[in-house]
From TrEMBL:
Sequence intervals crossing the membrane: 70-88, 100-124, 130-149, 170-198
Domain UBA: 305-345
Organism: Allacma fusca
The name this protein goes by in its record: UBA domain-containing protein
PANTHER family, sorted: RHOMBOID-RELATED PROTEIN, UBIQUITIN-ASSOCIATED DOMAIN-CONTAINING PROTEIN 2
A Pfam family it matches: UBA
Keywords: Membrane, Transmembrane, Transmembrane helix
GO MF assignments: serine-type endopeptidase activity
UniProt xrefs under InterPro entries: UBA
Length: 345
């Protein structure tokens, strides 16, 4: 699974995603430090008991509690999720993305504290005496809200009658992170609610909880050399991980169809090739769609105007509005095909 998500055809590294790179680096450094025998005493600083920090005003423990996971499986799953979610940093920009993480993590932490106190009032103890689970729940799970609402769903295969996409794998990773204990389930739900609150901009949280420009510039100058990545040679920017996989599969399909057409053209002539293309089975591939589109251009059945919803989805993905409209017209308002057309441009 990791190889599929991190292969050369589906990624462009951490180019324009220094914050995601920094999150992964900080998480690994912290995890390594607390597992080194000489530094195991640092593990105590990751523990955060709500009644204790409120009575002793040790609010700094909340910050350390958010730095890393204690379980290896959570760390590996979170690395894959962060790597997938780096598309949001490229879309928003590092400063706005940092403000998003700051805002959602603050809201999620407040919700967690309130939840622990409410459960304790009803004598329900999911947190082993009020201890918050250590990890990046307030950073990761709010992003699942944007992932669900903003990233197009592209079917890759079907299993037992259910559609399987690249997004399915990401959701399963999120479930794996959240299912460690009842306390982690609460943390994950608080993170999702925080994402909804920040997205709806309730109580003007987007204006209040944001990174100041001065802090952003200082961090860029001080740490930019360590977290900035070089521009990749193969450019697939402006697309999600599952769209890039779909694009690669369609390129293979295109090469295969062209190869078959050339072989039959040489043996049987052009007329037989045209009949061969007309007899191809219908599927979700771009090339077969284009062939069907060409066959029906004459009767005007493919003149479908693009919907405002599909146009906005492509614009939010980083494509120019005029190009998005033209691609949707070519694809007869089919979002998956229009996305593939824009990627090839």
């Amino acid at each position: 699974m990791a190889a599929m998500m991190l292969n050369q055809h589906s990624t462009t590294g951490f180019y324009k995603a220094p914050v995601c790179k920094g999150l992964i680096g900080t998480m690994f450094l912290t995890c390594t430090a607390i597992h080194v025998p000489m530094m195991t005493h640092l593990r105590q600083y990751l523990s955060c008991q709500i009644p204790q920090i409120l009575s002793s005003a040790q609010i700094w423990r909340l910050l350390f509690n958010r730095l890393t996971f204690l379980h290896t499986k959570d760390i590996l799953c979170s690395v894959l999720v962060i790597y997938c979610f780096r598309i949001f940093e490229r879309r928003m920009g590092s400063k706005r993305f940092s403000s998003y993480l700051l805002g959602t993590c603050t809201i999620a932490t407040i919700l967690e504290i309130c939840t622990v106190l409410v459960l304790a009032r009803f004598n329900i103890d999911y947190h082993s005496g009020g201890y918050l689970p250590s990890g990046l729940y307030g950073f990761l799970f709010p992003l699942f809200v944007n992932y669900y609402l903003d990233i197009p769903r592209i079917t890759m295969s079907n299993f037992l009658g259910m559609s399987v996409t690249g997004k399915t794998i990401t959701y399963l990773l999120g479930l794996q992170i959240a299912s460690t204990s009842p306390a982690t389930v609460v943390s994950a739900l608080c993170g999702i609610i925080a994402g909804l609150i920040y997205r709806a901009n309730l109580f003007k949280v987007q204006r209040v909880l944001r990174v100041p420009d001065v802090v952003a510039r200082c961090c860029d100058k001080a740490l930019g050399w360590a977290f900035n990545s070089n521009e990749p040679k193969q450019q697939h920017m402006g697309a999600t991980l599952d769209i890039q996989r779909q694009e690669q599969a369609e390129l293979w399909e295109q090469q295969y169809l062209y190869s078959r057409a050339q072989d039959f053209r040489q043996v049987r002539g052009q007329g037989y090739t045209d009949r061969l293309i007309d007899d191809l089975p219908a599927d979700n591939g771009l090339m077969s769609y284009i062939f069907r589109n060409r066959r029906r251009q004459g009767d005007g059945s493919m003149d479908v105007e693009p919907s405002n919803e599909n146009i906005q989805i492509l614009v939010d993905m980083g494509f120019d509005r005029s190009q998005a409209v033209e691609a949707l017209r070519t694809a007869s308002n089919d979002l998956e095909t229009a996305t593939s057309i824009l990627l090839r441009q």
